[in-house]
């Protein structure tokens, strides 16, 4: 060691050579050598380092030898990266040797006998095992290629007796096939196909392909051939299959393609076939499957009406859209080829009808489009041509639709107002007055008419009308009661409901002198007693003239003539003067005494100017008016009164009796003296 004092004692160290790969380095001030990079025994086992020490002026060298001690740092290496082996399926006598793997340890001086092998992956230690010392792999169970055709494993090789480093390799084991599987058709119950009816020979129907789980790359184990072993008619599945013609379909023995074998496929005869197909592999194993073939419909049948004749009736009162009738048709085809459309194609120039099609149900409804009028001759009967059609074909049906009359017209009188010539009021009962006729545009009972008279126009039943329309007098007429009749004649048809029409008959009556004169008023003349005559009698409050009236027409009335019977003409009491102007005057000839005679009854004879004249006698009552020309005298009245227990109710006892010949005077009564 070099020792100096002060600044000259500060040394610097460095490696100048021998440091291959720069794996070592030195602390420059201390001189400690350390490892700077990883060491590799397999690359360099010894290093000879030259180290320089310097104080800035002086320097010295030394050699440092570093021996690298070996370490297990290399994993075992297999001879190949992938090992391939094979074993035949279904082999007995386990375990069966498959292959051997080999590895080596690259470490120098490593113990190659210390390698240990292990098998890893699905199936390790169950289907396959490995000898850990030799690396031999065995199949310890019977294998099934159809379950698994290739097995993949990882084999590990570990040095130092299984405690060191590990290397790995891939192992692929193929399972060789034997013919241990029969062909299988993929459809669980039955494969399905379809073909149109009338298809030509050779038309492809379906692929009937089976699968064989054996290896198709090895021999003939999975090479299949096909044949049809049976054909059944299964149109009616409830009855089971019925054997069908065996050559209707054929199959390609190599591809399994089923084609039409014969012409004449008819869905309407056989709708569904069931084929039994056999598949055979090269090893002689067979499997069967069924193919259900539906024959698709082709529109090769025309629809037709089920009914060969058609008749219907409809009321003319039916509303638009009313149903006339339903018609059903049939079509041996099916699906859209059997969807039927109904229409009216002839016999309906004014388009009174239309048809509603229920395509799926194969029936149509004839309905009314416009209102009908039976009174039009062209609308009383329709000879319709109805058509039913599918997509390509059609058929026709003639349908007779008769329209029934509805009571939609009321009877009509022509004319509806009839003015008749005047009729004498004394016409005899039963005399025909007129004949009225009504007409009705309807038919049958709807046009049958019954005649009657409105009760409001003939409240007394003076007339009657028979069912031929003859209007007659039923009871005596009286012009003075009704001078003119306004008769309402009603015609009622027999429809349901019935309709009515009316006409008015105006019938004036000719007057017949069947009424004599009458007093114009209810005369009540008064002649007071004690008045000297002669005096003109006042017949009422306003007039001294006696007047008459006549209910007959004027030609049978004025002028009137007045007189008294012969026995009264020379009476000393009264005198009647005819004024020859339709009035008369009555004169009282003397003084009268009421107490002797209170009234006189004078018969007045009156005549009208009719031809012949009508004369009647009416009584005129003349009252003698009272004058108070007699004093009353004292009178007595005895009244008996019953009282109950001294009590008497308030009651009228009676009128005071005071005798007096006069009877028009008014008496006043007062008490005389004290009245208890």
From TrEMBL:
Boundaries of every Cadherin domain copy: 3-78, 79-185, 195-305, 306-413, 423-519, 519-651
Pfam families noted in UniProt: Cadherin
Family matches, as InterPro entries: Cadherin, Cadherin-like_dom, Cadherin-like_sf, Cadherin_CS
Keyword Transmembrane: no
Primary localisation category: membrane
SUPFAM superfamilies noted in UniProt: Cadherin-like
Keywords: Calcium, Membrane, Repeat
Coiled-coil residue windows: none
Protein name: Cadherin domain-containing protein
Classification lineage: Eukaryota, Metazoa, Chordata, Craniata, Vertebrata
């Amino acid at each position: 060691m070099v020792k100096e004092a002060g600044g000259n004692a500060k040394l610097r160290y460095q490696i100048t050579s021998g440091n291959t790969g720069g794996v070592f380095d030195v602390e420059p001030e201390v001189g400690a050598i350390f490892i700077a990079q990883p060491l590799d025994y397999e690359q360099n086992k010894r290093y000879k380092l030259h180290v320089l020490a310097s104080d800035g002026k002086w320097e010295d060298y030394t050699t440092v030898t570093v021996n690298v001690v070996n370490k297990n740092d290399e994993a075992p290496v297999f001879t190949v990266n992938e090992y391939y082996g094979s074993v035949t399926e279904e082999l007995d006598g386990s375990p069966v040797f498959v292959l051997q793997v080999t590895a080596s340890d690259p470490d120098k001086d490593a113990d190659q006998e210390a390698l240990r092998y292990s098998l890893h992956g699905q199936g390790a230690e169950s289907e396959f095992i490995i000898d850990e010392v030799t690396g031999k792999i065995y199949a310890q169970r019977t294998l099934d290629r159809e379950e698994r055709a290739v097995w993949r494993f990882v084999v590990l090789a570990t040095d130092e007796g299984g405690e060191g480093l590990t290397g790995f390799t891939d192992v692929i084991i193929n399972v060789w096939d034997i013919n241990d599987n029969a062909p299988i058709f993929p459809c669980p119950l039955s494969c399905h196909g379809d073909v149109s009816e009338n298809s030509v020979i050779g038309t492809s129907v379906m692929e009937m392909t089976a699968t064989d789980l054996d290896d198709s790359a090895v021999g003939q184990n999975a090479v299949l051939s096909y044949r049809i072993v049976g054909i059944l008619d299964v149109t009616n599945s409830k009855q089971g299959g019925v054997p069908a013609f065996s050559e209707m379909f054929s199959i390609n023995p190599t591809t399994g393609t089923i084609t039409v074998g014969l012409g004449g496929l008819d869905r309407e005869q056989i709708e569904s076939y069931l084929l039994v197909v056999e598949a055979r592999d090269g090893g002689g194993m067979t499997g069967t499957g069924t193919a259900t073939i539906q024959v698709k419909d082709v529109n090769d049948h025309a629809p037709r009406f089920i009914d060969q004749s058609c008749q219907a009736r409809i009321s003319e009162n039916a509303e638009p859209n009313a149903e006339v009738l339903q018609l059903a048709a049939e079509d041996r085809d099916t699906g859209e080829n059997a969807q039927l459309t109904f229409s009216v194609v002839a016999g309906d120039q004014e388009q009174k009808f239309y048809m509603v099609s229920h395509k799926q149900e194969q029936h149509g409804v004839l309905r009314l489009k416009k209102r009908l009028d039976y009174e039009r001759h062209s609308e009383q009967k329709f000879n319709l041509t109805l058509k039913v059609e599918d997509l390509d074909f059609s058929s026709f049906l003639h349908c007779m639709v008769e329209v029934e009359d509805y009571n939609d017209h009321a009877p009509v009188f022509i004319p509806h107002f009839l003015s008749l010539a005047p009729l004498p009021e004394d016409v005899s009962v039963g005399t025909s007055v007129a004949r009225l006729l009504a007409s009705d545009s309807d038919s049958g009972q709807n046009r049958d008419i019954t005649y009657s008279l409105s009760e409001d126009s003939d409240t007394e039943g003076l007339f009657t009308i028979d069912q031929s329309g003859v209007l007659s007098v039923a009871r005596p007429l009286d012009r003075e009661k009704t001078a003119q009749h306004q008769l309402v004649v009603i015609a009622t048809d027999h429809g349901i409901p019935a309709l009515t029409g009316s006409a008015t008959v105006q019938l004036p009556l000719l007057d017949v002198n069947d009424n004599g004169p009458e007093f114009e008023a209810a005369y009540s003349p008064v002649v007071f007693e004690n008045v000297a005559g002669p005096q003109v009698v006042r017949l009422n409050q306003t007039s001294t003239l006696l007047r008459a009236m006549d209910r007959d027409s004027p030609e049978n009335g004025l002028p009137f003539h007045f007189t008294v019977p012969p026995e009264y003409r020379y009476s000393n009491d009264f005198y009647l003067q005819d004024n020859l102007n339709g009035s008369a005057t009555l004169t009282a000839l003397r003084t009268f005494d009421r107490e002797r005679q209170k009234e006189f009854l004078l018969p007045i004879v009156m005549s009208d100017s009719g031809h012949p004249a009508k004369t009647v006698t009416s009584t005129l009552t003349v009252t003698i008016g009272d004058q108070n020309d007699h004093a009353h005298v004292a009178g007595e009245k005895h009244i008996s009164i019953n009282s109950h227990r001294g009590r008497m109710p308030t009651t009228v006892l009676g009128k005071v009796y005071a005798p007096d010949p006069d009877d028009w005077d008014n008496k006043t009564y007062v008490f005389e003296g004290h009245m208890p």
